[in-house]
């Protein structure tokens, strides 16, 4: 009697297996594009000008290779639809839309792009993935979300990893794309925080004399956060441009729900990243006790509170866009965050074009040693690799080849060369080729501006004392808690120490809720990144 059901189960299993195999074969056949004649000749001129007046007239050559316009235009995806979710326009959302339109034109496939505000993006990506019903084939998002998303992502196939463009991605950004030894994120951007400053003010004899009189020091790009504050304070409220309008010392990202946590970590980096103490800066990697309320972080928040007097009107609620246009438009003397503000300052119509300089993030003259629980007096500088936009393909997508071809096209050499020069796009250097000053000089940048920019960015790649983002499950909860604490201190609702004590308490609760072992395991990936620098 037992043999019949058992035989039946075997039969059912066999049919299921055959059905699954047939479905897989059908899906693979559906994914595979037909071949057609190329629409571009090798080395064709590429420009975005036909897509509107908001795009520069710049032309670049299509670089031969599997991701080029010529190669991708040979593929016929007619009858297939690719679904993409990306950030709101313009930052990363605009290039997503533009390259989707181009991909449609040259492959015949349909590409649907949904653009979502930053505050909603995490949930709209993760919730369907967790439910086993991915709403999108391709996802653009901040790379620090990898701890939440990695289980649902398709590893990047070897043929894409072997493309010339991928092989040129810097080690730091290939590391950022990797989780547990597999590349699961497709690099499209490289983000770091660094200092931007107006050289027309630094080199003005009148301003130099004013600063010398106020401080007894020579005016130069600040090497420490204390110097940054001093320079910002001396010049805030002055009229640099002779147009009767006040200029200000510093523009910072301070809006609670708009990346203020990254601005704060930039300020904290040299106080908390000790070159001789390994093991990460956010948690004790053994106990997972939060370090966010230790003296280095508290000192950074005290500095940030002092800086309020140097901000432009409304500067206590600046989002990233405000910071981009405040420095990029010449309102403020200094800024620190992503490349966007610097590239905005270098747009052809900018009044401060070629009057700016890039430099490393300010450092400190002492750093907190968490091993000895004391301050060590030493000059310390700690570059901050702060998330960066990335992209990935859902493991459950039935259009994986089309999805990876789209990403391959998105990041081809011609598109990236154009995207890098459009400040609002949010696409910043992530390949070694992008550190060549000659590329930027071709865009009309003065040689000294191009060299300050590329040497600052490439120098961060070489540093052995770097800070990377917290990349663990629940990262949005941790960063939201931190942003709330920073905002409370900036608003005068709490002292820096009390605000960060509250953050540490919340971080412990978040860790317990997610699972201490789960967070600790993921956090080791962050510690390894820092150790490999």
UniProtKB/TrEMBL annotation:
It comes from Streptomyces tirandamycinicus. It comes from the Bacteria. Residues 1-25 form the signal peptide. This is ABC transporter substrate-binding protein. Keywords: Signal. Pfam families: SBP_bac_8. InterPro entries: Bact_solute-bd_prot1, SBP.
């Amino acid at each position: 009697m037992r043999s019949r059901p058992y035989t039946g189960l075997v039969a059912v299993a066999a049919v299921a297996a055959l059905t699954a195999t047939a479905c897989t074969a059908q899906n693979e056949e559906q994914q595979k594009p037909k071949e057609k004649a190329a629409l571009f000749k090798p080395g064709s001129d590429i420009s975005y000008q036909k897509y509107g007046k908001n795009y520069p007239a710049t032309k670049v050559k299509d670089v031969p290779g599997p991701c080029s316009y010529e190669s991708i235009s040979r593929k016929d995806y007619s009858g297939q639809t690719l679904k993409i979710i990306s950030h709101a326009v313009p930052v990363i959302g605009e290039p997503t839309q533009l390259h989707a339109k181009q991909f449609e034109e040259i492959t015949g496939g349909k590409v649907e792009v949904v653009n979502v505000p930053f505050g909603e993006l995490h949930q709209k990506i993760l919730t369907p993935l967790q439910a086993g019903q991915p709403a999108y084939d391709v996802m653009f998002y901040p790379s620090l979300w990898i701890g939440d998303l990695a289980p649902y992502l398709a590893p990047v196939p070897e043929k894409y990893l072997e493309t010339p463009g991928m092989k040129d991605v810097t080690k730091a950004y290939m590391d950022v794309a990797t989780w547990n030894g597999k590349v699961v994120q497709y690099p499209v951007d490289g983000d770091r925080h660094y200092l931007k400053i107006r050289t027309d003010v630094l080199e003005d004899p009148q301003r130099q004399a004013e600063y010398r009189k106020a401080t007894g020091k020579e005016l130069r790009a600040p090497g420490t956060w204390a110097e940054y504050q001093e320079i910002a304070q001396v010049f805030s409220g002055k009229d640099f441009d002779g147009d009767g309008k006040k200029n200000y010392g510093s523009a910072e990202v301070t809006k609670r729900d708009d990346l203020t946590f990254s601005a704060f970590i930039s300020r904290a980096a040299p106080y908390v990243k000790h070159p001789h103490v390994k093991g990460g800066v956010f948690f004790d990697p053994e106990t997972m006790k939060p370090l966010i309320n230790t003296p280095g972080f508290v000192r950074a928040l005290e500095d940030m509170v002092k800086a309020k007097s140097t901000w432009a009107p409304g500067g206590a609620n600046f989002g990233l866009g405000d910071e981009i246009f405040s420095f990029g438009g010449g309102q403020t003397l200094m800024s620190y965050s992503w490349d966007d503000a610097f590239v905005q300052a270098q747009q052809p119509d900018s009044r401060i074009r070629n009057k700016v300089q890039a430099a490393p993030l300010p450092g400190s003259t002492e750093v907190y040693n968490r091993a000895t629980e004391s301050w060590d007096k030493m000059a310390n500088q700690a570059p901050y690799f702060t998330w960066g936009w990335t992209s990935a393909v859902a493991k459950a997508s039935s259009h994986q080849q089309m999805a990876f071809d789209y990403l391959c096209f998105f990041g081809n050499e011609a598109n990236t060369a154009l995207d890098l020069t459009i400040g609002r796009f949010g696409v910043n250097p992530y390949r070694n080729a992008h550190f060549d000053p000659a590329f930027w000089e071709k865009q009309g940048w003065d040689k000294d501006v191009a060299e300050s920019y590329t040497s600052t960015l490439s120098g961060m790649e070489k540093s052995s004392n770097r800070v990377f983002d917290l990349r663990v499950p629940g990262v949005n909860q941790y960063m939201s808690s931190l942003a709330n604490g920073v905002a409370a201190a900036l608003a005068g609702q709490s002292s820096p120490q009390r605000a960060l004590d509250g953050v540490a308490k919340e971080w412990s609760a978040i860790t317990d809720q997610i699972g201490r072992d789960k967070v600790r395991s993921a956090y080791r990936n962050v510690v390894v990144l820092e150790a490999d620098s």
